[in-house]
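ok so I'm stuck.
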Amino acid sequence: MRRLLLLVGLLFASSATAGPQDGWTIDPRASSLTFSATQIGSLVTGRFPVWTGEIVLDPASLGTARIDIRIETPSVTTNNRDVDSLLKGANFLDVQKFPQARFASTAITAKGEDRYEARGTLTIRNVARNVVLPFTLAIVDDPAQPGRSKGTARGRLVLKRLDFGVGQNEWAGTGQVADEVTVDLNVVASRAK
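replied:
not stuck anymore, here's the structure
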């Protein structure tokens, strides 16, 4: 379920005159990183409320775009004490030993209209895998902050937890917890125009 961590969060630096190298500032209250998986036929949903990142992304200059997201794994919550304890324990995320998951992009490409793909490396439990995160991006003038742009990125990634070693010992199979984990991200950020 940790894969979810992978992908979201963007914390950037902004400047008075925005350009391709200027970053975005994430609004953590409006943004979310959630996940869902199936355990013994029942859907389990959760979120990672604590993550930070650095994002430089100008649709007109994708060659200089970069995303680097860091997810604090101890923050994972499903609002179920037993499930949270299992997720944080040594058989799953092992948050004591691996307190952070990370997604670092290697390339961002336009796929038409408002659709993009971020290719990069997702690291969970010190296991790094190449992933592709499809997302949509909408940039508008920010009515609450004159002189700034507001960006909203939404994406969904389906990962296999066992590829990252998430599920050890009796949890290394898929009889109780499905291998596929769906990660949904909603990132709202702003920057100077």
